[in-house]
Specification:
This protein is of the alpha+beta class. The chain folds into three domains: 5-156, Beta-grasp domain (Ubiquitin-like (UB roll)); 229-342, Uridine Diphospho-n-acetylenolpyruvylglucosamine Reductase, domain 3 (2-Layer Sandwich), CATH 3.30.465; 365-457, CO dehydrogenase flavoprotein, C-terminal domain (Enolase-like, domain 1, 2-Layer Sandwich). 34% of the residues lie in helices and 22% in strands. Strands 2-1-5-3-4 form a five-stranded mixed sheet. A five-stranded antiparallel sheet has the order 10-11-16-12-13. Strands 6-7-9-8 form a four-stranded mixed sheet, covered by helices on one side. A hairpin with a 3-residue loop joins strand 6 and strand 7 (180-182). The longest helix is centred in the C-terminal third of the chain and has 20 residues, at 429-448. It starts with a strand and ends with a helix. The protein binds flavin-adenine dinucleotide and FE2/S2 (inorganic) cluster (2 copies). Residues 44-46, 67, 200-208, 225, 245-246, 270-271, 275, 278-280, 282-284, 286-287, 292-293, 330, 335-336, 361, 363 line the site of flavin-adenine dinucleotide.
Length: 459
């Protein structure tokens, strides 16, 4: 398996030889290909100055070129700001709208905003404030102010755009420089995993990409999982939902939100559109951060994981997967294939909260997720899970027991038995305990009068 990286860039097929597949797309564009319209601001996926568009399967997705490795764009189609044209060969309508709305000053952030706007318009974005906010949450501007940019977005919402041309996708597995392996089947992925148990698995790269961009120490070898169909399948039955581990947030969201509507606002605060277009749920579990947003949700929803290796397949409740700080039950030759969870039964309700310093593009200080079953006005069962409260995301078992026995006040008190959080710059231990207890009070209000609390939340 040896080949050159090939992809379409601004409608032209490019081939990259003799360069590490761990080079970031941004470095390649600017330093090796002479396209400097795409900027580097933070080099860690936060500011959006490096936004480019991935044109795939009839859609346009904004991504952060600073944390995407060249190997990841093999077989894909990428558009940068240099590749924008209007139908008459002049500026693209998005560029015209930005200019006419006075939506740029120093201009450093502008190519990134333009590309986010192109993805927004190209995916049927509407002129509603929430939709525009969501599309821009991954782009920062330090000088223009956002009002003119929002004006420009309002003008281009609903723009008719041509579907993107087909990308030069690959059917066969490939390997680049003996370092970056991109299998196309689960059998090949497992063979590679067995042969290279010490190498890292790569899904969206929104965690691992930072090794190349921020730390400048890219991984030596990677097995890239997102082209393995068995890892990206979504299946649903009347009582269960299964999501392939390498499914992006963007692709999983419709299924998850349909089953658990409380995830709509929650997922909109996970990273930005750029992050959700690349980041995967399996990566969020695999990275095993105590402040990842999906583990509390999945713990509350009683999710289990399918772990697979050449030795076979095993199911493990997520409850038993996180062993200690960033330590999991995944064996060196295993891959997370999928996660699955039951739908809500009759009488069950699910809610979740993310508390962070900023509304957008911020990691949780505390995240809480709760599945509660109520029958005849009485809470019969509860699964309460929290992130940011311990070395691993965990259920609050003392609070669960207290809730069933003595109600919400007792559950809020029991939080201090469940958790001994740490002090860090996101929040002190005392703050975290207070927040988690308050979230249970909020859950009580939500269950008592869902409409009233919804009104408060939308303020
Ligand atoms: C700007 C920015 C904002 C972010 N915001 C948030 C946020 O709000 N909330 C949040 O929770 N996270 C956030 N993240 C972190 C990150 O986006 C998530 O953790 C994401 O889900 C990681 O998925 P990935 O596919 O990109 O993982 P990758 O970077 O590809 O991999 C992450 C880890 O998981 C392992 N892994 C990947 N796939 C598998 C698999 N199938 N089996 C076993 N192991 C696997 C990898 O080996 C690696 O150790 C943010 C990151 C950035 C850069
Ligand atoms: S340079 Fe800031 S997100 Fe990439
Ligand atoms: S126009 Fe200067 S940073 Fe946005």
């Amino acid at each position: 398996m040896a080949d050159n990286i090939r992809f379409t860039l601004n409608d032209t097929l490019v081939e990259v030889a003799d360069l590490s597949p761990m080079t970031t797309l941004l470095d390649w564009l600017r330093d090796h290909h002479g396209l400097r319209g795409t900027k580097e601001g933070c080099a860690e996926g936060d500011c959006g100055a490096c936004t480019v568009v991935l044109e795939r399967e009839g859609r346009r997705d904004a991504i952060n070129a600073c944390i995407v490795l060249l190997g990841q764009v093999d077989g894909q189609s990428v558009r940068t700001v240099e590749g924008l044209r209007g139908a008459d060969g002049g500026p693209h309508p998005v560029q015209t709208a930005m200019a006419e709305a006075d939506a740029t000053q120093c201009g450093f952030c502008t190519p990134g905003f333009v590309m986010s706007a192109v993805a927004f318009a190209g995916s049927g974005g509407t002129a509603e404030p929430d939709a525009i906010h969501d599309a821009l949450a991954g782009n920062l501007c330090r000088c223009t102010g956002y009002r003119p940019i929002v004006d420009a977005m309002t003008r281009i919402a609903g723009l008719t755009v041509e579907p993107p041309p087909a990308a030069p996708s690959r059917a066969q597995s490939v390997g680049f420089e003996g370092a970056f392996f991109a299998p196309r089947s689960l059998a090949e992925a497992l063979t590679l995993r067995a042969e290279h148990p010490d190498e890292l698995l790569l899904s969206g790269g929104t965690d691992l990409g930072l090794l190349a961009s921020r730390a400048r120490k890219p991984p030596e070898k990677l097995i890239h999982l997102v082209h393995v169909p068995e890892l990206t399948a979504i299946s649903t039955t009347s009582d269960r939902i299964a999501i392939g581990a390498a499914t992006t947030y963007g692709d999983a969201a419709p299924t998850l939100i349909e089953a658990f509507p409380a995830l709509r606002p929650y997922l909109s605060r996970l990273g930005s559109r750029q992050i959700r277009n690349m980041g995967t749920i399996g990566g969020n579990i695999g990275t095993a951060s105590p402040i990842g947003d999906m583990p509390p949700v999945l713990l509350a929803l009683e999710a289990s994981l399918t772990l697979v290796s050449k030795r076979g397949t095993r199911e493990i409740p997520l409850d038993e997967f996180f062993l200690d700080y960033r330590k999991t039950a995944l064996a060196p030759d295993e891959i997370i294939q999928s996660l699955s969870m039951p739908r809500l039964w009759e009488g069950e309700t699910f809610h979740c909260d993310k508390v962070s310093k900023r509304r957008d593009q911020d990691i949780s200080t505390v995240a809480g997720a709760y599945r509660v079953r109520i029958r005849h006005g009485k809470i019969e069962d509860a699964r309460l899970a929290f992130g940011g409260m311990a070395a691993t995301p965990r259920r609050a078992r003392a609070a669960e027991a207290a809730l069933l026995k003595d109600g919400f006040a007792a559950a809020a008190e029991a939080i201090a038995t469940d958790f001994k959080p740490v002090d860090d710059w996101r929040g002190s231990a005392a703050y975290r305990l207070q927040v988690a207890a308050n979230l249970l009070r909020r859950l009580e209000l939500r269950l008592a009068d869902p409409q009233r609390v919804l009104e408060v939340e939308s303020l």
